[in-house]
Amino acid sequence: MVEAGWSPANFGETGPNPPYLRIGGKLRVTLSDYEPCFSSFHRDRVLFRSKVSMLEHLQKYDQIMVDPAAFEECYGPGEGTEATFPFGAWLTIRKVSFEGLDLWGRRCGAVTLPLEPLTVASAIWLRNAPRPGLQG
Predict the structure, then answer these.
(1) Which residue, 12, 88, 106, 125, shows the most beta carbons closer than 10 Å to its own?
(2) What is the 3-state secondary structure (H, E, C) of 53-119?
């Protein structure tokens, strides 16, 4: 997010696993398409928050790994189990939508990561790999 021009003030710090992001929506330039985005935690432009397109941000990365803490914090204790999601595995990012991230793992196959756990930025890892763009 620093590469996108965000400062530490754009992240929330209150909670057990800081930093935190907000999930929002953003109108594209055409004003006809609405897409998921990361939104600044604090209002940084009077009444508005800075927004970064999830699609644009995640196109820079090939894979994502999620820590159980993201699910535990969003959905409650006991939700960070292997029966819920393949934690600790690098999963290939295939598509970004409001339904979540469509991912692929060698051991688990196709899986969808809901957007809510992405708010716990400390529990998400991304890694770079050059490749063609994602679908929107």
Answers:
(1) 12
(2) EHHHHHCCCCEEEECHHHHHHHHCCCCCCCCCCCCCCCEEEEEEECCEEEEEECCCEEEEECCHHHH
Residue 77 backbone dihedrals phi, psi, to 5 degrees: -60, 145
Tracing tokens 């990365």 back to the chain, one arrives at: 61
What span, in angstroms and rounded, lies between the C-alpha atoms of 121 and 19?
6
Buried b (16+ CB within 10 A) or exposed e, 86-106: bbebebebebbeeebbbbeee
Do residues 70 and 124 touch, judged by C-beta distance below 8 A?
Answer: yes
Quick: pLDDT tens for 57-86.
Answer: 898 899 999 999 999 999 999 999 988 899
Q: Which of 136, 126, 115 lies closest to 21, judged by CA?
A: 115
Peptide bond into 19 cis (omega under 30): yes
pLDDT of 24-46, one tens digit each?
887 665 556 778 999 888 887 77
Interatomic CA distance for residues 28 and 72, integer angstroms: 33
